[in-house]
Amino acid sequence: MIGVAVLGATGSIGTSTLEVIKRHGARFRPIALTANRQVEPLFEQCIEYRPEYAVMADDDSAQQLRDRLQEVGVGVEVLSGLDGLKRVATLPQVDYVMAAIVGAAGLEPTLAAASAGKRVLLANKEALVMSGRLFMDTIRESGAELLPVDSEHNAIHQCMPADRKNGLAGAGVSKILLTASGGPFRTTPLEQFADITPEQACSHPNWVMGRKISVDSATMMNKGLEVIEACWLFDAEPEQIQVVLHPQSVIHSMIQYTDGSVLAQLGNPDMRTPIAHALAWPERMDSGVPPLDLFAIARLDFEAPDFSRFPCLRLAYEAIQAGGTCPAILNAANEIAVQAFLDRRLNFATIPDVIEATLGNVSSCPAESLTAVLAGDAAAREQATQLISQKEGQSWA
Ligand code: NAD
Ligand code: MG
């Protein structure tokens, strides 16, 4: 039996992961499930999956969960906070760690899993965006396995040659074609961007996801973070990654080879496919996703991305090109701006302005240590928070 810890078990990726694991109950055993502060959803999951451990983000929620489990006589050890997350990510009986916490909160537990040599199934792209080389070095030094769950990166992984000892060029790869749906506002007139509501931004045309990544998809910061994620995962230069708008989200990404071949991975837009791929790799197993019906899809469209409509995409390319802690600063400013937008304290059109101003005001340094990355993250959060409160109720210009 393969022991699995699901970090962020109550989220969109976490619940899809548990669905896939349930289909293969003889092969995978959920050892630990974690959540932020949602006691009831994690309680329900503990009843259904009977993990050894559950982790809540704070002591109060942990105590509530303990009480609930005691009432029904279910024995699960309940831990709390970052220490609890790191502990379950490194347990000897845990072989695979699904990193599906959203945002910077997932960085340290994911790094802990990497240091402990686990198979890391990476959904939490923010962790890799923030810590880049440090993360990849940790994986290599510990002998951990890193399998991308983000659908595009999972697709790229599937289309890449296994042997890349001599780099992408040595393997005959000329470009990574990273597909993007363009989100819900691909064709919305720009002058309406200021009036976009959180409800509109969170209703994605093709995918059902958590609120933060839904807003990121609407600003296309999600694609920007994915460009950075792809640079680290596949040792690519930003210029080797071409974003391709593909509104149907059927092709999940492609690799262009020097001989003119283009390999693509296609599938229904359902995260259970990349999750099952990463769990079973190098084998294949049933994910519960219905087969792709090409006749129903009938056509696939492609467009070039419009960088002036989606400045977040440009900012992400600039941040990875600038290097150091710039991607961590970009990510932190984005997390603060997105939360302010979801709280209706910032209008949608000004999200990129907050990020650009934060990148301009916080100085970057080499991202050599976790301390440096976390310091960049903290400084950017403070700066972005300050910018948003200064501008509250004013126009941004
Ligand atoms: P979500 O909001 O649905 O779930 C997030 C999970 O993390 C929940 O279990 C929540 O309890 C937990 N969590 C949140 N804040 C926490 C904190 N401070 N401490 C501890 N736990 C915390 O998010 P999601 O859509 O499942 O996305 C998870 C990650 O996967 C994100 O990094 C996202 O970018 C990535 N991802 C998601 C999708 C998707 O289709 N949903 C696709 C690709 C990548
Ligand atoms: Mg993606």
On the 0-100 scale, what is the average pLDDT? 96
- Residues in helix, %: 40-55%
What about the largest sheet? 7 strands, parallel
> What structural class should be given to the helix and strand makeup?
alpha/beta
For the record, give the distance between the C-alpha atoms at the N and C termini, rounded to a whole number: 58 Å
Count of separate DSSP helical elements: 17
| Proportion of strand residues | 5-15%
Radius of gyration: 21 Å
CATH topology of the largest domain: Rossmann fold
Per CATH, the superfamily of the largest domain is NAD(P)-binding Rossmann-like Domain
| CATH architecture level-2 label of the largest domain | 3-Layer(aba) Sandwich
Spatial sequence of strands, sheet with the most strands: 4-3-2-1-5-6-7
- Give the uncertain stretches in residue-range form: none
SSE pattern? EHEHEHEHEHEHEHHEHHHEEEHHHHHH
Shape: globular
Number of domains: 3
According to DSSP, the number of beta strands is 11
List the ligand species.
nicotinamide-adenine-dinucleotide, magnesium ion
Secondary-structure map:
Blueprint lengths: L1 E6 L4 H12 L4 E8 L3 H11 L3 E4 L2 H13 L5 E4 H9 L6 E4 L7 H9 L3 E4 L2 H18 L2 E4 L2 H9 L7 H4 L2 E8 L17 H4 L9 H9 L1 H14 L6 E5 L5 E7 L4 E5 L5 H9 L13 H4 L13 H12 L3 H17 L8 H11 L8 H22 L6
Parallel strand pairs: 1-2, 1-5, 2-3, 3-4, 5-6, 6-7, 8-9
Antiparallel strand pairs: 8-10, 10-11
Helix pairs in contact: 2-3, 4-5, 5-6, 6-11, 6-15, 10-15, 11-14, 14-15, 14-16, 15-16, 15-17, 16-17
The protein binds nicotinamide-adenine-dinucleotide (NAD) and magnesium ion.
Nicotinamide-adenine-dinucleotide binds next to helix 1 and helix 6.
